[in-house]
Amino acid sequence: MSDGASPHRHIRSFVHRARRLSGRKQADYKKQFDQFGIAVPSGGFNPASHFPQTGPLTLEIGFGHAEVLLQEAQAFPERNFLGLEVYEPALARLLREIERLEFENLRVIRGDAAQLLPLFPSHCLNRLRILFPDPWPKRRHWKRRLLQKPFMRECARVLMTGGHLHMATDWEDYAEQIRSLLDGQPEWTLESALPERPQTHYEHRALRLKHSIYEWLAQRN
C-alpha cells in the first residue's frame, strides 16, 4: 500500500501506530478473533450472516476504546453491532470484553475503512457511526482525511433508507469540511437531536485540551 498522492493509489486515512501485541496477549487475540472477528473477503460479504440473530445492524468505524459499542450491545441485545478498527491493541481490548460479557450481538473487523466499506453490500446498515476520526490537522495532509466526497458516497450506499450516519470531530476545520459534505446534499437530512452516548476516551482528551465538540446525526433519504 502506498501513501503517495496519486489518485490511482490508496491514501491511508489513519495515523500509523507501531504498537503490537506480544506473547500471551497475541495468542489470546488470535483465538478471540477466530471466534468473534470477521475476515472480509475481497469479493465482498454479507455482514448479517455473521450473527446468530437477525436484527438492525450498526457499524462503528474506528471504535477506539469501544465505549459506545459496548454500552449499546449490552443495552440493545436485539440489535447487532459491528466494530471496524485498524489498531490491534484496540481490537484485542474489545475482543476480551466480548468474550468476558458473552456478547452474541457484537463482532469486529480489522482493516482500513476506506478499503473495506466498498465491500459491504448496499443498504445493509441501519446506522453508521464515525466518532473522532484521525483529524490530520496539517493542511497538506487534509487529503488523508477519511470523510471526503467518495467515502460519503459509500456511506450513503451502505445505509438503508431512513438509516443514520452519526459523526463527531473536535477539529474546527474538519467540522467545516464535514458540514460542506452534508449541507444541501439530497442524500442527507440533518436531525436536530443527537443520540445519547457515553463520552469516548478521545473526546475526554479533547475536552481536557479545551477543544469544542462538533457532532451530527444525518438521516439517509
Tag the structure with descriptive keywords.
221 residues, alpha/beta, eight-stranded mixed β-sheet, 7 helices, 32% helix, 21% strand, disordered N terminus
Describe the structure.
The chain has 221 residues and is α/β, with parallel strands linked by helices. Helices cover 32% and strands 21% of the residues. It contains seven helices and eight strands. It has helices at 23-36, 67-75, 88-101, 113-116, 149-158, 172-182, 201-208, and strands at 37-38, 57-61, 80-85, 106-110, 125-131, 159-169, 188-190, 214-220. Strands 1-4-3-2-5-6-8-7 form an eight-stranded mixed sheet. Helix 5 links the parallel strand 5 (125-131) and strand 6 (159-169). Mean pLDDT is 91; it is low at 1-8.
Shape estimate: globular
Helix-strand pattern? HEEHEHEHEHEHEHE
| Main sheet: strands, sense, barrel | 8 strands, mixed
Indicate the low-confidence ranges by residue numbers.
1-8
Radius of gyration: 17 Å
Compute the number of helices.
Answer: 7
End-to-end separation:
35 Å
Q: Assembly type of the shown chains?
A: single chain
Beta-strand content:
15-25%
Quickly describe the structure.
The protein is of the alpha/beta class and 221 residues long.
Show the helix and strand layout.
Elements: H1 23-36, E1 37-38, E2 57-61, H2 67-75, E3 80-85, H3 88-101, E4 106-110, H4 113-116, E5 125-131, H5 149-158, E6 159-169, H6 172-182, E7 188-190, H7 201-208, E8 214-220
Parallel strand pairs: 1-4, 2-3, 2-5, 3-4, 5-6
Antiparallel strand pairs: 6-8, 7-8
